[in-house]
Amino acid sequence: MQNIKRSFLNKNKITITIYCLFLFFISIKSIHAQEPPRKYGFERKNKKSIYAEDAKLELKKTDKWKRFLNFGMFFGPTFSRMNINLTDEFINGDPSQFNGLVSIVPRTSPGIMIGAYSNFRVSDFFDVRFCVNGFAGYEFGLDYNYQNGTNKSKVVEASMLELPLLIKYRSQLRGLRGMYLIAGIKPSFLLTSRKNDLENVTVNTRDIAIDYGFGLDIFYSYFKFAPEIRFSHGLLNMLNKQEINQFNRPLKSVYEHTVTIYLHFGG
Fold first, then answer.
1. Which residues contact 137 (CB under 8 A, 6 or more apart)?
2. pLDDT truncated to tens, each residue of the chain (267 aa)?
3. Could you tell me which residues come within 8 angstroms of residue 121 by beta carbon, excluding any fewer than 6 positions away?
4. Is 6 within the bounds of a domain?
5. Is residue 15 part of a domain?
6. CATH number at residue 239
7. How many domains, in total, are found in the chain?
8. 223: containing domain
């Protein structure tokens, strides 16, 4: 019964992942389709300007890209896993000391990210961005394999509040588009956690991570759309060693690792 339930949940995760990626590509395609012809509303800018010579007249009037402060929102799918280190006792010991456990394999699982950001313009090429990931839903899966051929799949479900502080370096615009690089730190706080759970891996409630990635700014008359791919590597050991059970005991450390596809909509 548990295998059937697990299979059903895995199918649902795959379906959600495919659906999110489908929405991502449809969003890009629909936005490109809305772009007006490039034969009207353009004028030449100074060659020394970092902005493209064919920037739209409407955008130039509002100077959206030159505002000191801009706000926006984002959402997108995220894919997470735990990078684990095993104890010397488990590596060099007898499996019988660990109920016949022979290996632990991390599993990548999908999740979802929703939040808002404020963007501060520092110079023509650099911005400082502060984000509030109001809902960051992760699943960290671990497969425990035993000598008798059985396995147990453990999932650490984490709803986190994340507060990334990032530096954005953008390139010179080409037309109404421009690539950018982004990097910074991400403190995070676990909103839900399991206490004294002897049947699962228990983790700490705080973490800090290094984030880095790249994206594409696309300017439109009334908003800016920016798809982005960002990688995150946790720096703190999330394993709660104060609550020892059969699933925590073989582990020495666990570190969060996520890849997220962000879809930004802002001014």
1. 78, 111, 112, 113, 157, 158, 159
2. 434 444 444 445 555 555 555 555 555 544 444 444 443 333 344 444 444 445 555 555 446 666 788 899 999 999 999 999 999 988 888 888 888 999 999 999 899 999 999 999 898 789 999 999 888 888 888 999 998 888 888 888 888 899 999 999 988 877 778 899 999 999 999 887 655 566 778 888 889 999 999 999 988 877 889 999 999 999 999 988 787 788 888 999 999 999 999 999 986
3. 66, 67, 68, 69, 70, 127
4. no
5. no
6. 2.40.160.20
7. 1
8. 60-266
